[in-house]
Amino acid sequence: xxxSVKKILKITIPIIIGLGLVLYSYFTTTPEDRQQIFDSIKxxxxxxxxxxxxxxxxxxxxxxxxxxxxxxxxxxxxxLINNIFIIFISYFxxxxxxxxxxxxxxxxxxxxxxxxxxxxxxxVVTERIIDVIMLLLIxxxxxxxxxxxxxxxxxxxxxxxxxxxxxxxxxxIGLYVAVRIIKKSKAPLAIKIKTFLTGLLDGVLSIFKMKRxxxxxxxxxxxxxxxxxxxxxxxxxxPETAVLSLGQILVxxxxxxxxxxxxxxxxxxxxxxxxxxxxxxxxxxxxGEAFGWIMWTSQNSMLLVFGAISFLLLPLxxxxx
Length: 321
Description:
By secondary structure, the chain is mostly helical. Helices cover about 80% and strands about 0% of the residues. The chain contains 13 helices and no strands. It has helices at about 5-25, 30-40, 45-70, 80-95, 100-115, 115-145, 145-155, 160-185, 190-205, 215-235, 245-260, 270-280, 285-315. The longest helix is centred in the last third of the chain and has 33 residues, at about 285-315. It is globular, with a radius of gyration of 21 Å. The model has no long low-confidence stretch (mean pLDDT about 80).
């Protein structure tokens, strides 16, 4: 298979999967269910939606500020307005071509701020590593807050408390054995895993080498607090989801986050994943899908609008470059 064909498939397959999931969601619901979901979306409180969008925008601005903390030790300090524009453009690009935003982000930084490509890429990789760590932390918190419901699900599937402890013990042993094998192995996959884990550790340690480590950590938690906050606000747009607790919201948030990286901006998959997760907490499928579609539409609309505006304004604010 030629490189050009591979490139086309990488671009088109996620879009096709996303559109396929939208059609699947449409044809697997009854006309009455579709009308109920549509009514929930149509009657949404726009004030709450706008508040969620504002919180989302704050997270991106905070990310732009934090980016300079990584670039500063390298001898660069881009204009904050440029960082903001570039961040929005990168997320806008990811909606169109999955995972293209990172490359565009680094390229734009080189074009408008003269930051070498490899150095800009290093900061983006570090950011992604920190994001993975934060997501793992949220998963851990969600598991702790929702231990009861997890045990109930396991009980329902005939596993029970003893079985859960046995699975946990086996998982720990398996993880230990896997780490030992990967550490000694020379296989390409094992080397890739070791490289990733080494990068993960380097990303964490790099925080303590920068001048403004406290500000960096503050903005990291602010970014992820905003992510959860915009999700939390949207729960009040659907009466049935308004009663969800923080722990339940976190579980749905994690499911939605994984859906976002599977297709372009979570196209098609996001509402399905969120609805399926909320079903464990007694939320009806219709209410769960309405919640998912409202959340997905509001945030992706924000990225489309702000991304398009940033795409136009970035060269205008840098006419001398």
